[in-house]
Fold this protein.
Amino acid sequence: MAVILVVEDDPSAQLLTKVKLKNHFTVVCANDGEEALTIMEQQRVDLIVADIMMPNMNGYQLVQSLREVKEEVPIILVTARADFEDKRRGFALGADDYMVKPINYEELLWRIEALLRRAKIASEQRIVIGESILDAKSYQMIHDGKDMALSKKEFELLYKLLSYPNVILTKNQLLEEVWGYDSDSDENTIKTHIN
């Protein structure tokens, strides 16, 4: 079971978040960023849900200190502050997501699951769906135990689509992320590869 670290100085908000998540994850709690770092030295943490406004070490400082040491754990910042500059600062420091209070806990659960899925794919560089395996390290697709021959671009396109299930990716997104910004390819290239 994934370990979620909830970093929140308000005891009632911390307890509510823990109660809402405990049926799906192992939940540990910290009262500020300093306590969170201590917990992370002692145990594995798969994702952090952190308030921004806290004493000792706030959410921004926590994100910054983790990213400075190349710690890639996914982080969702949660705050009552909804202005654009606060969001920009959080993402610029390395946060993966941002939610404004009051929290919809069903939505928080969806966001946690999506970030955990992407983190797993990124660390393993492998997607398994039923009898099919896509291995990004070897650019190999295996289906029912048989190696399937795919070109590099076919593999990258399939890997990108399977990394984001139930998400609609535009042709422009696929062109930029699979073929690159400076590519001369157009939308017909995507149609050809998908066909």
About this structure: The longest helix spans residues 105-124. Strands lie at 3-7, 26-30, 47-51, 75-79, 97-100, 126-129, 132-135, 140-143, 146-148. The radius of gyration is 20 Å. The first strand starts at residue 3 and ends at 7.
